[in-house]
Structure formats: structure tokens, C-alpha cells
Design brief:
alpha/beta, 3-stranded parallel beta sheet, two-stranded antiparallel sheet, 5 helices
Length: 220
Amino acid sequence: TGGGSGGGGGGGGEKAATNPPRCRLRGFGGECLEYPLPYGPGQWPASYNYSGAFPEGFVFGMATSAYQIEGAFREDGRGASIWDTFTGANTVGMPGATCSYCCKNLPCPVNPSMSDIGATGNVACDHYHAWRSDLAMMRSMGLKHYRFSISWPRLIPTGRLQDGVNEKAKAFYNSLIDGLLDAGITPYVTLYHWDLPQGLLDPPRVQGWWSRDENGRPTG
């Protein structure tokens, strides 16, 4: 009795097709590069083959980005970010979430390019609510310089000034900056940390930074 022909005459020696391993890091020519792995336990370098010193006046500090720490992605009038769309967050009804590929019904789809399905900035470090305790930790560390980014879709929900500025976002960032100064920490602001409002990206109708009207003027 034995295996043999199976359905439709397929050869018994054929092997099932397998998917090639996913490339996580590509070079400028498109070639797959070996992904740099972190050091394992007990494998930290004992010495380094470089020397020198930082110049006088060099500023040491700490940095964050709004999407990675703030959370509160649907609170106080924040608009949809392109990252919300990419990660499959619930953007239904959010300001700016009107693109042709934006989520219309739940559950919202996750971009297939994501390597960590389910990771979002919906809550993140909850800095939007916990910024006072975060500042207390910074101060206890002796931090003197802090760079953070302002969330464009939080401040200008659709990305367009003519649609209005979010006053609650202004109050949040003003309070954060005042708190940093009161703690003796110098704030440095990143105006854009890849947090584009979804309302500015819907190719070919709206092209993000490069979006222009029929007269060549920026539409953002």
C-alpha cells in the first residue's frame, strides 16, 4: 500500500516550499546584512580600542521622542500619527485619520512590515500623565540636559495650522518645559521626530513634507 502518487500525480521526491529567512537589516544596495546582536550576559567588552576626550563644553544629557514615551494617543484632542496607522492602533474617528488606507472599522490592520506585532505607542511610558514623576526621577539622577520631541499630531491634530492648534497640547508642553526649568534641567526641543500627522499623508493626494497645491505652495 505505501504513499506514492498522492493527489494529482505530484512526484514523491518533491520538498515542501519554505519561506526564506526574513532580512532585518539591508545595506544601501539592498543586500541582506547580518543583524548586530546585543551582548549576552558576561560578554561585555573588558577594554576598548579607542582613546581621546570630549571637548570642553560638551553637553551630556538624555533624549526621548514623543511617540515612544507619551502614550495617551486618543486623549485631549490628539490627532492620528502615521505610526498609529502603521501599528494598527484604533484611529477610527481621530482627527486626520481620513486617508484612503486609514482604518474605517475595528480591528484596525497592522502593517505587515512590523516585526513586533502588537507593539504600539498607545500607552508607551505614559509620560503624558506621569511627566511630574518622570521629572522627579530625572532630577534625582542629577540630569542637567534633556532633549524631547513635540508631537506634531498632538499639537496640530490634522497637521494643518488652518484647522487649529490643540490648546491642551500647548498647556502640556508648557508645563513640561516649566517643570524642567524648575528642576534645573535645560530643555532641548526636537521639532520633528518622525511623528508625522496622518492628515498630511495620503499619496498621491497629500504627500507629507513635500505636499504642494496646484500653485506649488505647501499644503501643510
